[in-house]
Structure formats: structure tokens, C-alpha cells
Design a protein that fits this description.
Blueprint: E1 8-13, E2 29-34, E3 54-61, E4 68-69, H1 71-80, E5 84-85, H2 90-97, E6 120-123, E7 131-133, E8 135-136, E9 151-152, E10 166-174, H3 178-193, E11 205-210, H4 235-239, E12 244-246, H5 257-269, E13 273-275, E14 277-278, H6 281-285, E15 288-292, E16 297-304, E17 318-319, H7 324-338, E18 342-348, H8 359-371, E19 375-378, E20 387-390, E21 393-396, E22 401-403, H9 410-413, E23 414-423, E24 426-436, H10 448-458
Parallel strand pairs: 2-15, 4-8, 5-6, 10-11, 10-22, 11-12, 12-13, 16-18, 18-19, 19-21
Antiparallel strand pairs: 1-2, 3-6, 3-7, 3-9, 10-23, 14-17, 15-16, 20-21, 23-24
């Protein structure tokens, strides 16, 4: 039996990854190294069970808006049957928490994902992206594992999660231009990023969907619907530790092909890998493939549904146009030839000023899951859109504006980005961080009322089809 507790010492060893090809063997290596055994420090808290070997995770549906539960409340609810657990841990959980009776057990496949109150406890191996993990005693296991209070003895020679969890952040629309550029000219990058930068410390994989190419001669103040970014302001991507760049956006060719090619070179020069667009149709369609510490492979694929500005790489360069047969062939190749473990499918859908997705968004998202994608992430939305569950897979129809200047109405100020965690070849958590664009055009964490307003708009029971 193991008696280990770990903190996450993050070592990011980025290899050279081809920006696409499914046959590439040049892979990015991500490792998380176990650095600490159980010590007296872990036992100072009287409720800390961390002298044992396996964390237990309290989970609810996306519709359950409660984020935290105390250990005392957990014990009471397990006693009265209002919280259940998986059968494999029921007896051990009873013993560990000194419960009078064995907790009620449930099969995860029978969990009610439309419930706004049900919770279930299980081992890390059973955690799934369909659920949202709750804090226990205000501690998020994925952020502070050594302080997390709910651990359980477990006999397993193979349990070694501390070497397998990889952090990943996925963001919404980025277009550093117009009024955002004006703010950067006047107040600088430090000011612009001040409110969100703490969320991007010590990350391993950071996704940015950048819709704008760099051009030093651009004048932000005169821009309307043709966008460009000064090269000096591309530094924002470095500051956020971005290393996964999505190019499915509509505006990357606004100021010409040379600016686009210059941007591709800038990404390569700064060790950023891109997908969903490229210097040729073939490159635009190639996925980005990375290998994690445990040698499992993950892939990002990207498409543009409508290409309204002629931005797609139909003949030369640009974004990857969505075609159903092409998407199926690409996913089949990743599953059957490359044998990746997890596929993130990102789509620049047709834009709509609505929390609800269009009929095409629903159709394409479900098709991509039918073909074998593991999660669908809409890249186009200038306001947050609904979250859905289909065949046990999560669909994020649109995350809203991450770094863009719109503040002219409520919807375009509301957004969220996702904190994800890879474990054993799949993302087991996508935890939303809700944001609200302030009057200075700074992306800013939403306050409690702003957050609740976004949640009420995008979390609808009808979308949870599981």
C-alpha cells in the first residue's frame, strides 16, 4: 500500500512538434514529477486525510452551481444518504470517516446530469469531463493536492497519478486590435493582463485562438473591420505562456498573406505550435499532436464553418474549411493510424449574437462526436454560449471573448475560459473560470453576480442529453 502525498512540480520539456502532420514523431513532452513524500506538514490539519494514498473527488453536474463542501457537511450527507459514492470505495469511506452505515452507492453511468443538487464521490480514476469536481474545505484538489483533505487508503501498485496529470487552459476569442490595441499603446501589457495573469502561472499547455496577424505599421485607432496587431503586442502570448495556437479565425488574412506568413514564423520562433490554419491547405488541415509523460497522444483539430471573409485555405493559405467528409477522414486517421488517446475539436462556427447555438452548431458538434472527437470547443463566439452534453462528451458552443475590445452590450462582455487536466490520456476536468470585460477592455474574473448571470444564461437542463 502506498503512503505517498505529492505536490506537483511541473517540468515542461517542449520538443519540436510539427504543426500538423499525423505522421510526425516530433512530440512535445510534458512531465509532472513527484517531489515530496508524506511529512508532518501534511498532518497538521486535523481533518487532513493525506497520510493515505488515493484522493477521492466529490463531483456534480455542470448544472450544480455549488463549488465547495466542508468535510463535516460531507459526513452528514453521506450518513443521511443525500450524497452517494461509487461501490468500490463505500466500505473504506465508511471506515475512514467513521460513518454509522455504509454510504449509498451509485453507478456513475446512472448519475442524473440534469440534477442541480446531486453529488457523488469516487476515485480519481473515475473522474470524467462530464462532471465538475467540487472543492472540499475550500480546497481544489487539482490546484492544491497536498492540502486537499479527502484521501483514502488504497491497495494498488499501479496508482501513480502525480506523474500523469498535465494542466491545460483553453480560451475564447483573441483579437488584439482596435480599442484593445489603443489601451496597450497607452498603458502597456502589464496593465492589460493584470487581472488574469495569476491564472496563467505554472501552466504546461495554454491554448489561444488568435484571429489577427501581426503588422507593425497598423494604426489601432483607425481600424474598423480589418484587423492587425503590432508585433510588440504579440508578446502577450508569451506572457500567458501560450504554446497551442488556434488559427481557425476569420481575420488572420485581413492585412494580406505576407502578414499571415510573418505570424506563422513568429509562432515557430517562439516555440508555439499551431493548428486549424497554415501556409497551405494541407498544413491547415493537419492536427497538432502532442505526447504526454505517459506516452499517450493527444490531438487538436480545427475548422472554420463558413469562411465569410475568404479566410480559408481552399487554394493557398488560411483557415481550415469545415467539410464533413474531410473531418471524418481526419478523425479516423487519428484514431486508427496515429492512435491518439484524445481529440479536441475546435470549430469557428458562424457567428451569432445569442447564448443559444445555431442548428448548424448542434449538427456539426454532434457529428464530430459521432466521428470520434472527445470534446467540442466553439471558437467564434463573441459572447458565452451554452454548454451541452452529448453521448457523455461535453460541447462548449462558445467561450466568448477572451482578449477582444467589445463592451457595447452585456453579452459580449461575458465569457469564460477552461482549466483542464489531462490524466491517463484524457481530460478529466474542464473547470470554467468566468470573466467579464471591464470598461478598460481588460479581461477580468467575474464577480459573484456577474458569474451567476453567465451561468444562468448558458447552463440549460435541455442541453444535457446524457
Amino acid at each position: 500500500m502506498k503512503k505517498l502525498v505529492t505536490i506537483f512540480s511541473i517540468v515542461l520539456l517542449i520538443g519540436i512538434v510539427s504543426c500538423g502532420g499525423t505522421s510526425t514523431e516530433e512530440l512535445a513532452l510534458i512531465s509532472l514529477v513527484n517531489t515530496k513524500e508524506t511529512s508532518g506538514e501534511a498532518n497538521n490539519n486535523s481533518t487532513n486525510l493525506a497520510n493515505d494514498s488515493i484522493p477521492l473527488i466529490v463531483m456534480g453536474s455542470f448544472l450544480n452551481l455549488s463549488e465547495d463542501i466542508s468535510l463535516d457537511s460531507l459526513k452528514i450527507k453521506l450518513e443521511n444518504g443525500s450524497i452517494s459514492c461509487t461501490k468500490d470505495i463505500a466500505q473504506s469511506l465508511q471506515e475512514k470517516l467513521n460513518l454509522s452505515t455504509e454510504p449509498k452507492s451509485i453507478q456513475l453511468g446512472k448519475f442524473n446530469f440534469k440534477s442541480r443538487k446531486d453529488l457523488v464521490i469516487t476515485t480519481l480514476d473515475s473522474v470524467d469531463q462530464q462532471f465538475l469536481a467540487k472543492k472540499v474545505n475550500s480546497i481544489n484538489f487539482f490546484k492544491e493536492p497536498i492540502k486537499y483533505p479527502l484521501w483514502l487508503s488504497y491497495d494498488s501498485d499501479d496508482f501513480d497519478f502525480q506523474k500523469e496529470i498535465t494542466t491545460y487552459t483553453h480560451t475564447g476569442v483573441t483579437a488584439i486590435t482596435r480599442s484593445t490595441g489603443t489601451v496597450l499603446n497607452a498603458k502597456g501589457i502589464d496593465f492589460y493582463l493584470a487581472n488574469i495573469l495569476p491564472f496563467f502561472k505554472n501552466l504546461e499547455l495554454v491554448h489561444i485562438s488568435n484571429e489577427v496577424s501581426n503588422q507593425d505599421a497598423c494604426v489601432y485607432e483607425t481600424m474598423k473591420m480589418k484587423f492587425a496587431t503590432k508585433t510588440e503586442h504579440f508578446e502577450i502570448l508569451n506572457r500567458l505562456k501560450a504554446n497551442v495556437i488556434e488559427l481557425t479565425g476569420n481575420h488572420n488574412l485581413d492585412v494580406g498573406q505576407q502578414a499571415y506568413l510573418n505570424s506563422l514564423k513568429w509562432y515557430k520562433d517562439h516555440n508555439m505550435k499551431y493548428f486549424g490554419g497554415g501556409a497551405s491547405p494541407a498544413e491547415a488541415n493537419k492536427p497538432l499532436i502532442m505526447e504526454l509523460k505517459d506516452h499517450r497522444k493527444i490531438a487538436w483539430i480545427g475548422f472554420n464553418e463558413l469562411c465569410p471573409l475568404g479566410e480559408c485555405a481552399d487554394k493557398i493559405m488560411g483557415a481550415n474549411r469545415y467539410e464533413e467528409t474531410k473531418a471524418k477522414k481526419l478523425i479516423d486517421s487519428l484514431r486508427n493510424e496515429v492512435k491518439v488517446d484524445y481529440i479536441l475539436a475546435c470549430v469557428q462556427y458562424g457567428e451569432v449574437d445569442s447564448y443559444s447555438p445555431t442548428a448548424n452548431q448542434k449538427k456539426i458538434s454532434q457529428k464530430l462526436i459521432d466521428f470520434g472527437a472527445d470534446v467540442i470547443l466553439g471558437s467564434q463566439a463573441h459572447q458565452a454560449q451554452e454548454i451541452a452534453l452529448y453521448k457523455g462528451k461535453v460541447i462548449f458552443y462558445g467561450l466568448g471573448n477572451f482578449m477582444f475590445d467589445q463592451i457595447h452590450r452585456l453579452g459580449v462582455r461575458q465569457a469564460f475560459f477552461l482549466e483542464g487536466y489531462f490524466y491517463k490520456g484524457k481530460i478529466i476536468q474542464f473547470q470554467p473560470v468566468y470573466t467579464f470585460m471591464n470598461k478598460e477592455r481588460q479581461p477580468t474574473p467575474a464577480n459573484d453576480s456577474e458569474k451567476l448571470e453567465i451561468q444562468n444564461a448558458i447552463l440549460k437542463e435541455a442541453n444535457f442529453l446524457n
